[in-house]
Amino acid sequence: MTFSPQLEARFAKLLNSYPPGRQRAALIPMLMYAQDEVGSITPEVKEEVARRVGITTLQVDEVVGYYSMMHTRPMGRYHLQICTNISCLLRGGDRLWERACKRLGIGHKQVTADGKISLEEVECIGACSWAPALQVNYDFMHNVTADALDEVIQILRKEPPPSAV
Amino acid sequence: MLYNEPHPLEVKVLTRRFDQPNCASLDTYLATDGYKAFQKALGMKPEEIIEQVKVSNLRGRGGAGFPTGMKWGFVPRTSPKPKYVVVNADESEPGTCKDRLLIENDPHQLIEGMLIAALAVGAHAGYIYIRGEYRYLIEIMDRAIDEARASGWLGKNIQGSGFDFEAYSHTGAGAYECGEESALLESLEGKRGIPRIRPPFPAVSGAFQCPTVLNNVETFCAVPSILLNGGEWFANLGSLKNGGTRLFCLSGHVNRPGVYELPMGFNLMRMIEEIGGGIRGGKKLKAVIPGGSSCPVLKAEECDLPMDFDSLAKAKSMLGSGGVVVMDETTDMVKVALRIMRFYQHESCGWCIPCREGTMWLKKLLERMDHGMGSSQDITLVGELARNMLGRTFCPLGDAAAMPTISLVEKFRDEFEKKLSRPGDLVPVDMVMA
Q1: What is the dihedral of CA A25, B185, B140, A143, to 10 degrees?
Q2: Which residues in chain A have Cβ-Cβ distances shorter than 8 Å to B82?
Q3: What is the pLDDT of residues B70-84, one digit of tens each?
Q4: What is the per-residue pLDDT across B327-380, written as a single tens digit (0 to 9) for each?
Q5: Could A129 and B258 be called an inter-chain contact, meaning their C-beta atoms sit closer than 8 Å?
Q6: Distance between CA atoms of B293 and A84, rounded to whole angstroms?
Q7: Chain B window 180-209: which residues touch A at a Cβ cutoff of 8 Å?
Q8: Contact check, Cβ <8 Å, A85/B171
């Protein structure tokens, strides 16, 4: 399978970052960066990465099954992650979560029919002092109000669907 | 970028560059004493570096509060194996959001801390393990590493000293467990984040089974200031056996939540009132989680104490990672207990049975209670189950789930009782789960 030149450069750098014979150490970063480009960790991605770090696909499967940010099926183009852990809960994170579910008509780890937006209730994302917080893909939003959430959803809805990109 | 206003009572040591323009750049760093501590360390013997860190009374900022100098001293310098420096930037203890700021605003301070640690133990490579959700920090860290290498602060023969050191960023992929040092090392090696049996400790057998210095981001970031101003200076900033300042993350029901750098030993009540501006909406304080969700909760009347590792231990809680979660009188403590347990149940790696099963059972029991069902014996059962997890797991995650739970049912038993609308009725757990 082929990746973009940028991702190939990243892989080359990663495979050079660990002691000789320890290329498996590059596995988790490689899977994450590949997921960003491909959309999910497909069987092809697993096979390719396994080959490059010199392990079996079964060993890759073990790892993929463990980490909560690794997805074996595509999430939406915009993955909306709302924190409801303690600090966010105290400032209304749970209400934001319910509101997002209602507005989008989907639940935990589900994707809208057009493939544009997916939703996940996440554990602490490290924004406790600026709670409630959420992430759209890797971007943080702090001190989120109900109106701000509605606005984000509206903006994301206007984005082109994944097939158009 | 700063996400909250600073406070005049802050003592800025680690955060002193945060208000500078381009604070993350090498130019700003060099213009503000950057890499001077490392140059000083180049002229010191490794034992002298470790001695200064010992004198500083710097204790691990990740949560355990272990004396950093002592930890470095455990690394066998004469071992023929390569040695490594590993930075724990897997910040994921609920209530904690400080390491993020240190990398975002001053990544060179972290690199300099790593360099000094490397000199002290004879390491030539280091890894910064950053939690997957903090992807933007990978970009910031990589830029700083490239900049440092281009200017001869990393790489071969650093500044003509003959000393070589390479630093690499490494992304995690979403797992609280990987903040535990031995699980972090497994994850760094490309495996599931499952804790290792210790001993041997990472100092002897860490990354790639080689001697390793592994500390939290904030711990490394304190090191340049210690070397530059002397261990004694740093020790004097804090309280007895608790050197320096630390970044406290105030969250929850205060008027001014935020991350503030304050001396160790700063009074908790003052922190809530003066730094945090008191409780939101003029409400009364009910309870505080003093150092991230793994710490036993303190009732309002227990909060007049100095925030250092020993005072919190005396109060049967922990200073932990500096995440101060403030709860007002309206807070539903059963919901708090349930939310905390849901987290640990989700994050338990499943390796040790008391943790894997205990967190699941506790979550089910608490879920039932939150629905107003169950019997008052269940409250006792929650405490018993949690106590049976204590000390019976390879890593502290089991304890971290048990400790706040025990404190919540002990200190707020009346709230649990009140929530059970029909005490005495036994409702099968599965009715709630379905």
Answers
A1: 130
A2: 19
A3: 999 999 999 999 999
A4: 999 999 999 999 999 999 999 999 999 999 999 999 999 999 999 988 889 999
A5: yes
A6: 13
A7: 187-193, 208
A8: no
Interface touch B251/A32, C-beta < 8 Å = no
Report the DSSP beta bridge partners of residue B269. none
Going along chain B from its start, the domains and CATH numbers come out as 26-237 (3.40.50.11540), 245-328 (3.10.20.600), 333-433 (1.20.1440.230)
Of B95, B172, B188, nearest to A128 by CB-CB distance is B95
pLDDT per residue as tens digits for the range B30-56: 999 999 999 999 999 999 999 999 999
Our CA-based measurement puts residue B379 at a distance from the nearest CA of chain A, in whole angstroms, of 21
The encoded tokens of residue B269 equal 């009540």
Residue B124 CB coordination number (10 Å): 14
| Token representation of residue B129 | 């393990």
Class of domain A5-64: mainly alpha
Q: ipTM of this complex > 0.90?
A: yes
**Cβ A139–B82 below 8 Å, yes or no?**
no
Distance in angstroms (rounded) separating the CA atoms of residues B137 and B254: 28
Contacts of A63 in chain B (CB under 8 A): 190-192
pLDDT tier at A162, thresholds 50, 70, 90: confident
Both tokens assigned to B434: 């379905």
The CATH fold of domain A78-164: Glutaredoxin (3.40.30)
Residues of chain A with CATH 3.40.30.10: 78-164
Phi, psi of A134 (to 5 degrees): -145, 170
Q: Per the structure block, which two tokens stand in for A96?
A: 């934001």
Domain with CATH 1.10.10.1590 in chain A: 5-64
Residue A161: what pLDDT?
74
pLDDT value for B240: 95
Interface test with A, best of B81, B92, B99, B171 (most A CBs within 10 A): B171
**Best residue in A129, A130, A143 to probe B by mutation, most B CBs within 10 Å?**
A129
Position B398 pLDDT exceeds 80: yes
User: Which residues in chain A have their CB less than 8 angstroms from residue B329's CB?
Assistant: none
pTM reported for the whole predicted model: 0.96
If you average pLDDT over residues B159-176, what whole number do you get?
A: 98
Question: Alpha-carbon distance A124 to B273, whole Å?
Answer: 25
Which chain A residues are closer than 8 Å to B211 by Cβ? none
Q: Which residue of B has its CA nearest to A128?
A: B95
Q: If you write DSSP's letter for every residue of B82-123 in order, what string do you get?
A: --EEEEEE---STT--SHHHHHHH-HHHHHHHHHHHHHHHT-
Strand partners, A80: A119, A136
